[in-house]
Specification:
With 314 residues, the chain is α/β, with parallel strands linked by helices. It is 50% helix and 16% strand. It is built from 14 helices and ten strands. It starts with a strand and ends with a helix.
Length: 314
Protein backbone atom coordinates (compact mmCIF):
# COMPACT_ATOMS: atom_id res chain seq x y z
CA UNK A 1 0.00 0.00 0.00
CA UNK A 2 1.30 3.45 -0.87
CA UNK A 3 1.64 5.97 1.94
CA UNK A 4 -1.62 7.88 1.57
CA UNK A 5 -2.73 10.98 3.49
CA UNK A 6 -6.34 12.11 3.74
CA UNK A 7 -6.94 15.87 3.73
CA UNK A 8 -10.24 17.48 4.74
CA UNK A 9 -11.15 21.09 3.91
CA UNK A 10 -12.47 23.74 6.26
CA UNK A 11 -14.81 26.69 6.13
CA UNK A 12 -14.96 28.68 2.86
CA UNK A 13 -14.82 25.56 0.66
CA UNK A 14 -18.61 25.36 0.42
CA UNK A 15 -20.57 26.00 -2.78
CA UNK A 16 -24.24 25.74 -3.73
CA UNK A 17 -25.03 22.29 -5.25
CA UNK A 18 -22.25 20.56 -3.30
CA UNK A 19 -23.07 16.91 -2.73
CA UNK A 20 -26.17 16.86 -4.96
CA UNK A 21 -24.75 14.50 -7.57
CA UNK A 22 -23.41 12.19 -4.82
CA UNK A 23 -26.86 12.13 -3.20
CA UNK A 24 -28.49 11.20 -6.50
CA UNK A 25 -25.92 8.54 -7.38
CA UNK A 26 -25.00 6.72 -4.17
CA UNK A 27 -27.23 5.22 -1.44
CA UNK A 28 -24.57 5.93 1.21
CA UNK A 29 -24.67 9.65 0.40
CA UNK A 30 -28.46 9.74 0.72
CA UNK A 31 -28.27 7.78 3.98
CA UNK A 32 -25.85 10.25 5.57
CA UNK A 33 -27.70 13.34 4.36
CA UNK A 34 -30.95 11.95 5.74
CA UNK A 35 -29.21 11.15 9.02
CA UNK A 36 -27.66 14.62 9.16
CA UNK A 37 -31.06 16.25 8.72
CA UNK A 38 -32.27 14.32 11.78
CA UNK A 39 -29.24 15.17 13.93
CA UNK A 40 -29.27 18.85 13.00
CA UNK A 41 -33.03 19.31 13.02
CA UNK A 42 -32.72 21.21 9.75
CA UNK A 43 -32.61 20.32 6.06
CA UNK A 44 -28.86 20.60 5.46
CA UNK A 45 -29.27 18.58 2.26
CA UNK A 46 -31.62 21.14 0.71
CA UNK A 47 -29.41 24.02 1.80
CA UNK A 48 -26.30 22.34 0.37
CA UNK A 49 -28.01 21.52 -2.91
CA UNK A 50 -30.10 24.65 -3.46
CA UNK A 51 -28.73 27.43 -1.26
CA UNK A 52 -29.21 30.33 -1.22
CA UNK A 53 -25.50 31.10 -1.01
CA UNK A 54 -26.12 33.86 1.53
CA UNK A 55 -27.58 31.27 3.90
CA UNK A 56 -25.09 28.50 3.17
CA UNK A 57 -22.14 30.81 3.90
CA UNK A 58 -23.27 31.45 7.47
CA UNK A 59 -20.97 29.71 9.94
CA UNK A 60 -23.78 27.74 11.58
CA UNK A 61 -24.67 26.24 8.19
CA UNK A 62 -21.31 26.09 6.44
CA UNK A 63 -19.54 23.93 8.98
CA UNK A 64 -22.14 21.12 9.18
CA UNK A 65 -22.58 21.18 5.39
CA UNK A 66 -18.86 20.72 4.73
CA UNK A 67 -18.52 18.07 7.44
CA UNK A 68 -21.35 15.98 5.98
CA UNK A 69 -20.01 16.28 2.43
CA UNK A 70 -16.50 15.31 3.53
CA UNK A 71 -17.70 12.30 5.51
CA UNK A 72 -19.67 11.09 2.50
CA UNK A 73 -16.64 11.56 0.25
CA UNK A 74 -14.53 9.46 2.63
CA UNK A 75 -17.13 6.70 2.93
CA UNK A 76 -17.41 6.47 -0.85
CA UNK A 77 -13.63 6.43 -1.22
CA UNK A 78 -13.27 3.74 1.44
CA UNK A 79 -15.97 1.62 -0.22
CA UNK A 80 -13.80 1.69 -3.34
CA UNK A 81 -10.73 0.43 -1.54
CA UNK A 82 -8.88 3.58 -0.51
CA UNK A 83 -6.63 3.01 2.50
CA UNK A 84 -4.74 5.67 4.39
CA UNK A 85 -1.81 5.96 6.78
CA UNK A 86 -2.45 9.52 8.01
CA UNK A 87 -5.23 12.11 8.10
CA UNK A 88 -5.47 15.84 8.71
CA UNK A 89 -8.11 18.52 8.33
CA UNK A 90 -7.94 22.30 8.15
CA UNK A 91 -9.74 23.77 11.19
CA UNK A 92 -13.31 22.44 10.80
CA UNK A 93 -11.84 19.72 8.58
CA UNK A 94 -10.14 18.19 11.60
CA UNK A 95 -13.54 16.82 12.64
CA UNK A 96 -13.92 15.08 9.26
CA UNK A 97 -10.41 13.66 9.70
CA UNK A 98 -11.42 12.30 13.10
CA UNK A 99 -14.45 10.62 11.54
CA UNK A 100 -12.21 9.02 8.91
CA UNK A 101 -9.80 7.86 11.62
CA UNK A 102 -12.61 6.28 13.63
CA UNK A 103 -12.18 8.67 16.57
CA UNK A 104 -15.70 10.10 16.28
CA UNK A 105 -18.88 8.54 14.95
CA UNK A 106 -20.83 10.44 12.31
CA UNK A 107 -23.51 11.45 14.82
CA UNK A 108 -21.02 12.57 17.48
CA UNK A 109 -18.86 14.39 14.96
CA UNK A 110 -21.85 16.23 13.55
CA UNK A 111 -23.11 17.08 17.05
CA UNK A 112 -19.71 18.56 17.88
CA UNK A 113 -19.60 20.52 14.63
CA UNK A 114 -23.15 21.83 15.04
CA UNK A 115 -22.34 23.23 18.48
CA UNK A 116 -18.88 24.47 17.50
CA UNK A 117 -20.37 26.43 14.62
CA UNK A 118 -23.02 27.99 16.85
CA UNK A 119 -20.49 28.94 19.52
CA UNK A 120 -18.19 30.51 16.93
CA UNK A 121 -21.02 32.46 15.34
CA UNK A 122 -22.12 33.67 18.79
CA UNK A 123 -18.57 34.87 19.46
CA UNK A 124 -18.45 36.67 16.11
CA UNK A 125 -21.68 38.48 16.89
CA UNK A 126 -20.44 39.38 20.37
CA UNK A 127 -17.07 40.68 19.10
CA UNK A 128 -17.22 42.28 15.64
CA UNK A 129 -14.01 41.14 13.98
CA UNK A 130 -12.45 39.84 10.80
CA UNK A 131 -9.46 38.13 9.15
CA UNK A 132 -6.97 38.89 6.38
CA UNK A 133 -4.38 36.91 4.43
CA UNK A 134 -0.81 38.20 4.50
CA UNK A 135 1.10 37.18 1.37
CA UNK A 136 4.86 37.33 1.09
CA UNK A 137 5.91 37.14 4.74
CA UNK A 138 6.92 34.12 6.83
CA UNK A 139 5.10 32.98 9.95
CA UNK A 140 7.59 34.48 12.40
CA UNK A 141 7.48 37.81 10.58
CA UNK A 142 3.68 37.86 10.77
CA UNK A 143 3.75 36.95 14.46
CA UNK A 144 6.09 39.92 15.04
CA UNK A 145 3.79 42.22 13.04
CA UNK A 146 0.81 41.10 15.12
CA UNK A 147 2.65 41.68 18.39
CA UNK A 148 3.44 45.25 17.37
CA UNK A 149 -0.06 45.86 16.02
CA UNK A 150 -1.58 44.66 19.29
CA UNK A 151 -0.97 48.15 20.68
CA UNK A 152 -3.95 49.25 18.59
CA UNK A 153 -6.24 46.23 18.94
CA UNK A 154 -6.51 42.44 19.12
CA UNK A 155 -4.72 40.64 16.27
CA UNK A 156 -2.90 37.29 16.04
CA UNK A 157 -1.51 34.93 13.43
CA UNK A 158 -4.35 32.44 12.89
CA UNK A 159 -3.64 30.14 9.94
CA UNK A 160 -0.11 29.16 8.86
CA UNK A 161 -1.23 28.02 5.42
CA UNK A 162 1.94 28.18 3.33
CA UNK A 163 5.54 29.32 3.58
CA UNK A 164 4.52 32.83 2.55
CA UNK A 165 0.78 32.85 3.31
CA UNK A 166 -0.45 33.49 6.83
CA UNK A 167 -3.96 34.53 7.82
CA UNK A 168 -4.30 37.02 10.65
CA UNK A 169 -7.33 37.33 12.88
CA UNK A 170 -8.59 40.09 15.17
CA UNK A 171 -10.76 43.12 15.73
CA UNK A 172 -10.99 45.74 13.01
CA UNK A 173 -8.49 48.15 14.60
CA UNK A 174 -5.93 45.38 15.10
CA UNK A 175 -6.30 44.07 11.57
CA UNK A 176 -5.97 47.57 10.12
CA UNK A 177 -2.78 48.27 12.05
CA UNK A 178 -1.32 44.83 11.22
CA UNK A 179 -2.13 45.38 7.55
CA UNK A 180 -0.14 48.61 7.52
CA UNK A 181 2.79 47.11 9.43
CA UNK A 182 2.84 44.00 7.22
CA UNK A 183 3.11 46.13 4.10
CA UNK A 184 5.93 48.12 5.70
CA UNK A 185 7.65 44.80 6.50
CA UNK A 186 7.56 43.79 2.83
CA UNK A 187 4.33 41.86 2.40
CA UNK A 188 3.32 41.60 -1.25
CA UNK A 189 -0.35 41.92 -0.42
CA UNK A 190 -2.75 41.80 2.50
CA UNK A 191 -6.13 40.49 1.38
CA UNK A 192 -9.27 40.90 3.53
CA UNK A 193 -11.12 37.60 3.95
CA UNK A 194 -14.89 37.26 3.70
CA UNK A 195 -15.42 35.53 7.05
CA UNK A 196 -17.83 36.01 9.92
CA UNK A 197 -15.21 36.97 12.49
CA UNK A 198 -11.83 36.40 14.09
CA UNK A 199 -11.48 32.62 14.03
CA UNK A 200 -8.56 31.05 15.91
CA UNK A 201 -8.05 34.11 18.07
CA UNK A 202 -8.79 35.17 21.66
CA UNK A 203 -11.99 36.77 20.33
CA UNK A 204 -13.50 33.27 20.08
CA UNK A 205 -13.88 33.20 23.88
CA UNK A 206 -15.89 31.75 25.61
CA UNK A 207 -16.32 29.16 22.83
CA UNK A 208 -13.62 26.76 24.14
CA UNK A 209 -15.30 26.24 27.51
CA UNK A 210 -18.70 25.86 25.87
CA UNK A 211 -17.28 23.32 23.43
CA UNK A 212 -15.64 21.36 26.25
CA UNK A 213 -19.05 20.81 27.83
CA UNK A 214 -20.30 19.32 24.55
CA UNK A 215 -17.25 17.16 23.86
CA UNK A 216 -17.31 15.73 27.38
CA UNK A 217 -20.63 14.09 26.49
CA UNK A 218 -19.38 12.48 23.27
CA UNK A 219 -17.43 9.25 22.73
CA UNK A 220 -13.81 9.63 21.60
CA UNK A 221 -12.13 6.41 20.43
CA UNK A 222 -8.46 5.71 19.87
CA UNK A 223 -7.63 6.57 16.27
CA UNK A 224 -7.36 3.73 13.78
CA UNK A 225 -4.81 5.88 11.95
CA UNK A 226 -2.90 8.91 13.29
CA UNK A 227 -4.39 12.38 12.81
CA UNK A 228 -1.94 15.25 12.46
CA UNK A 229 -3.46 17.93 14.66
CA UNK A 230 -3.82 21.60 13.78
CA UNK A 231 -2.53 22.84 17.13
CA UNK A 232 0.65 20.73 17.23
CA UNK A 233 1.31 19.64 13.61
CA UNK A 234 2.11 16.24 15.13
CA UNK A 235 0.31 12.89 14.74
CA UNK A 236 -1.62 11.18 17.49
CA UNK A 237 -4.19 8.46 18.01
CA UNK A 238 -4.75 9.37 21.68
CA UNK A 239 -8.43 10.16 22.32
CA UNK A 240 -7.84 12.40 25.34
CA UNK A 241 -5.21 14.49 23.59
CA UNK A 242 -7.42 14.85 20.53
CA UNK A 243 -10.35 16.11 22.60
CA UNK A 244 -8.21 18.67 24.40
CA UNK A 245 -6.66 19.91 21.17
CA UNK A 246 -10.09 20.43 19.61
CA UNK A 247 -10.83 22.80 22.48
CA UNK A 248 -7.46 24.55 22.13
CA UNK A 249 -7.95 24.84 18.37
CA UNK A 250 -10.65 27.50 18.68
CA UNK A 251 -8.17 30.11 19.90
CA UNK A 252 -4.86 28.67 18.62
CA UNK A 253 -3.36 28.99 15.12
CA UNK A 254 -3.89 26.30 12.50
CA UNK A 255 -0.41 24.96 11.68
CA UNK A 256 -1.25 23.70 8.21
CA UNK A 257 2.11 24.34 6.54
CA UNK A 258 4.01 22.49 9.31
CA UNK A 259 1.44 19.70 8.99
CA UNK A 260 2.27 19.34 5.30
CA UNK A 261 5.99 19.45 6.10
CA UNK A 262 5.46 16.60 8.55
CA UNK A 263 3.70 14.58 5.86
CA UNK A 264 6.51 15.23 3.40
CA UNK A 265 9.06 14.04 5.96
CA UNK A 266 6.88 10.98 6.67
CA UNK A 267 7.21 9.88 3.04
CA UNK A 268 3.63 10.43 1.93
CA UNK A 269 3.23 9.31 -1.69
CA UNK A 270 -0.42 10.21 -2.28
CA UNK A 271 -2.64 12.95 -0.83
CA UNK A 272 -6.42 12.83 -1.29
CA UNK A 273 -8.61 15.82 -0.47
CA UNK A 274 -12.12 14.73 0.48
CA UNK A 275 -14.88 17.33 0.39
CA UNK A 276 -15.88 20.42 -1.56
CA UNK A 277 -13.39 22.11 -3.90
CA UNK A 278 -9.60 21.60 -3.98
CA UNK A 279 -8.33 24.38 -1.73
CA UNK A 280 -5.98 22.18 0.29
CA UNK A 281 -4.40 20.57 -2.77
CA UNK A 282 -3.47 24.07 -3.91
CA UNK A 283 -1.69 24.69 -0.60
CA UNK A 284 -0.15 21.22 -0.60
CA UNK A 285 1.44 20.91 -4.02
CA UNK A 286 4.41 23.13 -3.18
CA UNK A 287 5.26 21.08 -0.08
CA UNK A 288 4.37 17.53 -1.09
CA UNK A 289 6.46 17.45 -4.24
CA UNK A 290 6.33 14.42 -6.54
CA UNK A 291 3.25 13.25 -4.65
CA UNK A 292 0.10 12.01 -6.38
CA UNK A 293 -2.69 14.54 -5.62
CA UNK A 294 -6.34 13.52 -5.90
CA UNK A 295 -9.67 14.96 -4.81
CA UNK A 296 -13.08 13.47 -4.08
CA UNK A 297 -15.88 16.00 -4.44
CA UNK A 298 -18.16 14.84 -7.27
CA UNK A 299 -19.38 11.61 -8.86
CA UNK A 300 -16.73 12.00 -11.55
CA UNK A 301 -14.06 12.19 -8.83
CA UNK A 302 -15.38 9.01 -7.18
CA UNK A 303 -15.28 7.17 -10.50
CA UNK A 304 -11.75 8.43 -11.23
CA UNK A 305 -10.57 7.39 -7.77
CA UNK A 306 -11.99 3.91 -8.28
CA UNK A 307 -9.77 3.50 -11.34
CA UNK A 308 -6.70 4.81 -9.49
CA UNK A 309 -7.21 2.48 -6.52
CA UNK A 310 -7.83 -0.48 -8.78
CA UNK A 311 -4.63 0.31 -10.64
CA UNK A 312 -2.67 0.54 -7.41
CA UNK A 313 -3.89 -2.81 -6.14
CA UNK A 314 -3.43 -4.67 -9.38
Amino acid sequence: MSQTALLFPGQASQYVAMGKDLYDAFPRAKELYDRANQVLGTDIARLSFEGPAEELVQTVNTQPAIFVHSCIAWDLARERGLDASLAAGHSLGEYSALYAAGVLSFDDGLTAVKNRAQFMQDACERNPSTMAAVLGLGFDQVVDVCKRASAKGVVVAANYNAANQVAISGDHAGIEEATNLAKEAGAKRVVPLAVGGAFHSPLMEPSPERLKDVLDNLTFNKGQIPVVLNVTAKPTTDANEIKQRLIDQLTAPVLWYPTMQFMADAGIERAVELGPKKVLLGLTKNVLKDVELLSVDTVADVEALESVVAGTSS
